[in-house]
Amino acid sequence: MELDAAAHAASEASDVPHVVVRRTLPTEPAVRASASLFVAEAERQGVRADRRMLYVGPEPASERVAEALRVQPGAEVLARRKLLLADGVPVRVATSYLRLDLFGGTPLASPGFVLPSLQAGIEALGHRFGHAEEELLARRPTPFEDETLRLSPGEWVVQIVRAGYATDGTPVHVLETVCAASRHVFPVRQVAGADEF
User: Fold this and answer.
1) Matching InterPro entries, A to Z (predicted)?
2) How far is it, in rounded angstroms, from Cα 79 to Cα 131?
3) Residues 48, 19: contact at Cβ < 8 Å?
4) What's this model's pTM, rounded to 2 decimal places?
């Protein structure tokens, strides 16, 4: 609770307009299958959503991404990084990581957004989604995240890593979403649909 209060106070003191968006855990299947998870969630909340592609290209896999994609840490993977804004305020940096041996040289390695969606692009290349696993971690931001999200001094981020696997178990997509902590609420839904805790 102290962290929430401190983050809220820091946000109030900054020059960034106050905005709060929801990021449901786990991601609902209907939202997960949409053209944009963020846009679909924002529209449900009456928030004006915008996306900006920041980078598409190879980069070394972090330990967590490498583990999920079953490659060696530091091995090059395809990264597709975008900035997500709510009512003009930067709220998330979302990076899709894909194995270069599966997706290098394909339309997924091209700049810009994949139409109609990244998920459809992955399936068009013969990979059908089977299941996904999500992890959540609260941590201090990197200098890049601090600057890109225009965080207040001392504000933390929440990192969600969702690993998507094909029906045959092949890891095909890792999505790392870094959220400005004071600009998010994380509703938790029971898998069975019953809100019992």
Assistant:
1) Bact_HTH_transcr_reg, Chorismate_lyase_/UTRA_dom_sf, UTRA
2) 21
3) no
4) 0.81
Task: Quote the longest CA-to-CA distance of the chain.
Answer: 50
Task: Enter the DSSP assignment of 145.
Answer: H
Residue type, 150: R
d(Cα 173, Cα 28) in Å, to the nearest integer? Answer: 17
DSSP 71: S
Number of domains observed in the structure of the chain = 1
Residue 19 lies in a domain: yes
For the domain that residue 50 is a member of, what is the CATH number?
A: 3.40.1410.10
Residue 175: domain span: 2-183
Phi, psi (rounded to 5 degrees) for 181: -60, -40
In a domain, 13, yes or no: yes
DSSP class of residue 108 equals G
pLDDT for 20-73, tens place per residue? Answer: 776 676 666 555 545 577 787 788 888 889 999 999 999 999 999 999 999 999
In three-state secondary structure terms, 115 is coil
